[in-house]
## 1
Amino acid sequence: MTQARNSKRLIEGQHLLGIESLSAQEIVTLLDLGERYVEVSRQIDKRQAVLSGRTQINLFFEASTRTQSSFELAGKRLGADVLNMAVSTSAISKGETVLDTAMTLNAMHPDILVIRHPSSGAAELLAQKVSCAVINAGDGQHEHPTQALLDALTIRRRKNRIEGLVVAICGDVLHSRVARSNIHLLNKLGARVRLVAPSTLLPTGAQNFGVEVHRNMREGLDGADVVMMLRLQLERMSGAFVPSVREYYRFYGLDEEKLKLAKPDALVMHPGPMNRGVEIDSNVADGVQSVIREQVEMGVAVRMAVLDALARNLPGGGNA
Amino acid sequence: MMAPSAKHSSGRKAYLNARLIDPAQGLDGKGGLLIEDGWILAAGPKVTAQSAGAGTTIFDCKGQLLVPGLIDMRVFTGEPGNEYRETLATASEAAAAGGITTMIVMPNTNPVIDDAAIVDFILRRARDTAIVRVAPMAALTKGLGGEFMTEIGTLQEAGAVAVTDGNKAVANARIFRRALAYAKDFDMLVVQHAEEPTLATGVMNASETAGRLGLAGTLAVSEVIMVERDLRLVESTGARYHVAQISCRQSVEVIRAAKARGLPVTCGVSVNHLVLNENDIGAYRTFFKLSPPLRSEDDRRALVEGVQDGTIDVIVSSHDPQSADTKRLPFAEAEFGAIGLETLFSASLSLHHNDGVPLPRLIDALSAKPAQILGLEAGRLAPGAPADFTLADIQHSWTVEDHILRSRSKNSPFEHRTLEGRVLETVVAGRTVYAYDLPR
């Protein structure tokens, strides 16, 4: 135990439902705190006391290995009691709604509820009905705020800044909560965001999101500082958003040749899990420009930062 | 049409000193209304205490508005099948409080109103339990399955006023054409829910807002192409065709052009689409999840213009009761629909107060036009018409709260909103079915 509780308020809200509602200052504060937790996570004794006595429930309505284990580790390193609840889709089909489940858990007095759900707005709905802090770990196609924070921390550590960088977000933007959260965050911190995707994988009105939109990947990558690849949701291929994986890879897959159009020191990122040979070439994914594994490390650190910041806003605050 | 004789009020009554608006007769001015045994004897400036004669019960309207009772052409109830959401009785209580004297109920029930026996069931239940008039539209296809035409002639004889698949579009062009041709022989009105189902797969308007919220959108074009397709079929069959509700600017333009070409087409709009827009969805508020979806402010303005110039014939509530189990869900999983019987008139008045739509046109769209389209004898204050009318104070403000709403379901998009204008009294067949106590 190396750190006592701190009651200094860092962010305004009770919950973290999205990046959209955070200010630039709050984002920077979370990144700074994340930076500290990177160091903590590299120590031999990683345990902190800021969440001791607190109960954190990870409520996952969608399967997720990396996000759930990242939140679990983050909570445990901060001293919380962490309970993982994977709610199978069969429980939902039995008629129990997301609110029923949440109300049941709420009665067990958790302090923090981490929720992932396949429907946009589910975290918001939950936050209206429970008394604890809610962290959105991904809701449908809406937001995935901790992913955007960990991406930003990764970029900032490598490039020493975010402002002014050209960031190309490529692939299935339409179905991506990662893209939406990153657009909000990067815009708030002054980066220049490009979206690179075929028209069928772009949301309506994307050109009004404060971004440049490119249908041609070569143009979209030209001079980019960061290339952020998105997972092509193969399970959505039945909707025929693109004609084939083969054609998709040809025009929108990141290979060494297309990557050459970006700046020589451009970072290659991917939120995972990757489809090698679909949206990204294996050599690129494992190449020198790739920071994909670093993203995973930053994930634990920013989630510790978010848990810490929200715990300070809980009743009883930091010195309970 | 059912209004039980037991509910007819006997004796002669005069409602004097009112502002009368009766679009069917072009009446707009001071006057009175004389009724007897559930029927109208006279209406207009010549109805006075003297002309009413001895033995007449006199009511002083104190200058308030008196209009033909409203006719709501699009009402979903839960009877039969989902009575916990709404019965004909509870819907009729809400209707009465909203100044509605005739509800046209949709066939989307369980069982579906696709058989003369179910039409008869609705009419009998209405006679026994409802306090306003009720008439059903029957299904256009059996079981709302979109495949086999119902017995349109028999349904009409049983009392169905039109055929429609309610909130489901008849997507198959061959089936729809055949139904139009057949309905034409009976001069039966065919009502369509215009949404091309292979395109209308979203949960809100396809727009920047949907993109930001991460919700699947439905483009306005999914409605427009269905309307345009149907109009071609109407042109080739000559059947009377009514679009239940339109939601976007392009549909207004398409209908306007079709009317100019002389096609037998009419259309409606829900008051929700006239007063609200997609931004009201805010943080995933499911009471604003409607089908067709709320669209942009530009679309809303075009719809208001459509009402104003008569391109859009009628305004409906599209009352669709949903309970917590279907609405307290993430937006994409929640059901479509909003209740609206009790707020139809008050919300519609905002078109008069804020958008400059003349009151007579508004009353026309809420009463005279639906009667004309459906061939009902109500919807006017003419001698010999049923004594169905509504008294209202168009200035009186009230706030919509779920505990004061009479509907069994509370999914009102106007919850917590203050509306200007309020129904004071509703009379069906000469009998007062609703009276509001003005706070002093």
## 2
Amino acid sequence: MSTMNLEPVPGRTDEMIVNMGPQHPATHGVLRVVLGLEGERITRAVPHIGYLHRNHEKIEEARTYPMVIPYTDRMDYVSGTQNELPFVLAIEDMLGVEVPDRARKIRTMFFELFRLASHLVWMGTAMLDLGAISPFLYTFWDREIILGIVEKTAGARMLPNYYTFGGVRRDVHPDFFKEVADLLDHLERRMVDYEHLVLESPVVHARTIGVGVLSKERAIARGVSGPVLRASGVAYDVRKAFPYDAYPDVEFEIPTSPDGDTYARFWVRFQEMYQSIRILRQLLELTPKTGPFKGKAPARIKPPAGERYRAVENSRGELGVFVISDGTDKPYRVKHRGAAFSNLQIIPDLFIGAKFSDAIAILSSLDPVFGEIDR
Amino acid sequence: MELRLKQERLFDEDIYTVHPEDYRALCEKLKADGFDFPRAVSGIDTGYGLRVTLHLTRLHDRAKVTVRTDVRYENPVVASVTDLWPGVEWYEREAYDMLGVRFSGHPDLRRILLEDEWELHPLLKRYDTGGYPIPGWEPKAWPDPDPWTPPPPPEPEAGEAGEGGEAS
Amino acid sequence: MGLLGSDERPRDVILGTLDDLINMARSRSMWPLTFGIACCAIEMMATWDPKIDADRFGMFFRNTPRQADVMIVSGTVNKKLAKRLRRLYDQMAEPKWVISMGACANQGGPFRQGYSVVEGVDKIVPVDVYIPGCPPRPEALLQALLLLRDKIADRELRYKKPREIPADYEIMAEPGKDGRIPVL
């Protein structure tokens, strides 16, 4: 199918062409999908992206290395500091900067806090798409607590620009550890409610079980990663496969599900939240309360000529960055590998044959964020 | 068949620099080797031509490879590997959109991020951030020897086995 | 003996023009369009969460532009989106207002001078309230909504129509064809 817009098939009158987006309440941003409908059933689906293309990769070539970090923040804007880490790790590799142990642990704590925040946003919006409003009110309340903790330390709520080469920009707030401990207690109680509201809801069961099944082979071949891949039964997690920061020091599991349907993707995200809480509990014990938070990085960042690909496991999957340096203070080329970009490619695979209302449920289970897809 | 390629090791990745005519053959070989997870395809403007970089992972033992190939500005054609790894479909479209690399055999090669009627390939180094041509920009000379040519065998006193792994 | 002739009026009668009444009603039921674009859209959602709760001011999201009064431009507008944004604006019924949320919508933000970014949404649609910040806090959006409420109800501005902006498709074209002079 190589047409820009779907053209009606000559002689076929039972197919209706429907345009969904870019302004649609359930597309999580500015996705546009042109659908061919036969009654309620989807016969063709062509996704169109690029409505949020903000020339990230071009403008980063004109910025110095420290100035690139705030741009990476704005890619997957729901998960804040997670986006900064691959770029920071790649440059640290090229420079050979040592990161103090405490800084690595603080970074990982923020990483997991933002995973919780991102999955809470996902839960609220996915349930809004399915027609339930109250989970949104609970999850955004909890997200505000997390963002409050982030803001106290980093100075900004959503896009903190907190990681830097060799550690983090400033030490954590004195209340940080206590507030995180309180948050975890609160979230553990809340997760029980969320299970009742989402995973045990008969409406969710009816709309997600057996809907949009993605096979293991197809998921791997399509380059899908993150919870979507793990819901298809592949235990691939960058945190385990290519450990970074403090992940070698903590114990956690990779939840997988063999089903590959929309409900499995919901379930895997829930289990990831439990694992995040578990990681944060361990890090609360392991992280020294005082100590260095930043290693020795050169004042003027000039990596030697070369290239480096680094990836992290953000809330949506493998978020990678491919940096090419030519020895100056500005990167020669920065290529971002968006997890949601790869995940969104399976839209035609999952949509065709599904019902139109199922398409909304499938899309919300993919959890796309368009800052990262369109870059 | 002798592939024209150069192999090196950088951090934890094997990097193959391959002649564009042999790119497809090397990819088929890597696919047969079990590299099943496509990470990304990035297009790069090297100043003397366009470079396509394919990043692959083998999931069961976490081996990573990077395949790169250089083509000239005048004829930027690279074989598509969408049929080997369907996951690179959008990445190849993005490289076409941003740099004008044409992937022969791609099922649906059209612009993905910019609008279809645009003529600009913005990531080319001859354009500034705003997409306007930089006056006086000239392409660099094609490197000599060609980038994919393996380095000559080291002198005998170096005692190092040749790293230019001539895969066949 | 008519009420208007005497100085004494019953206390439950308010005198005014019909416009005042309509403007008051309009300002107390602003319905924004559900149109999240980028990072600011998450903070826009957070403005309707239980902590800030903009619902209590009578503001509810409408999913179709035909029913909406206020468009909150919450993020970077690029040239591909600009045509759609203008079309959504044209579809909204009069009277309509626009809030430009965040640095990107105000003037391009950190992505200013990029090849694909429109440097300010006010080149496409007339803007009533600008919010600085990248992204602005939910409180800032709430303040903007309250400012807009005052603006709608204000007698001075009652008959002022917003600045007409023609649907200028040149600005949405690619660099070199957009009528901009390159900065070199």
